[in-house]
Write a structure and sequence with these properties.
This protein is mainly alpha-helical. The protein has one domain. Strands 1-2 form a two-stranded antiparallel sheet. Helix 1 packs across helix 3. The N and C termini lie far apart (37 Å).
Amino acid sequence: MTKTKILLVIPLAIIGSFLTYTWATILFTEINSNWRHYVALVFFVLLLFLYFKSFTKTILATGFYLILGTCNLLTLTPSVVTNAYGVRIISVELWTPTFQLVSFILLILFFIMNFDSLVDIYLDYKEARKTGKK
């Protein structure tokens, strides 16, 4: 296994462990699942399928998955916990949109660990566009 694949497996393993804990909690306690839990599970299965098909697509899909989690369109935790931060200046209040902190932290970790691979994908894309237009 190459270094770049290992750097992708780490976030996928963390996501998988969160989902395992979440679904074990849902199945064995009184917590009910909602549509965000099902979306997270289905998209994670698609991520695993992509991992064995295409490395490039898996990196992009993992980033998209974590962005969806940050934006409250899927959840990795048993209960949906959202945060919003705001500033009040005299009578004007400015708030951030609500987001999930766990997914956001995983997204930052993913970008830090896979920055080189993401840059390589972008440069390959730019080069393919440049040679395709000429």
